Amino acid sequence: MEKKENNKTEAYTRYLNNMSFADLEHHAEISANILHVLHKIEEKISTVSDINRDCKLAIKIYRSKGLIK
Description:
By secondary structure, the chain is an all-alpha fold. It has one domain. The protein is 87% helix and 0% strand. It starts with a helix and ends in a 5-residue tail after the last helix.
């Protein structure tokens, strides 16, 4: 599997090396936008995870105090 990944990386490197400067600029802009979107998604997932954790903790505390069954 690692060899397959290395082949993909080498092929992609050759692809980028053969691009014109203008194409590389465009590619970099697209890549930056994708990374930005992925970062925003990651933030949302983290927020949902935090809310889920906090709710579970609150329920545990409510149960221990006899507020809910």
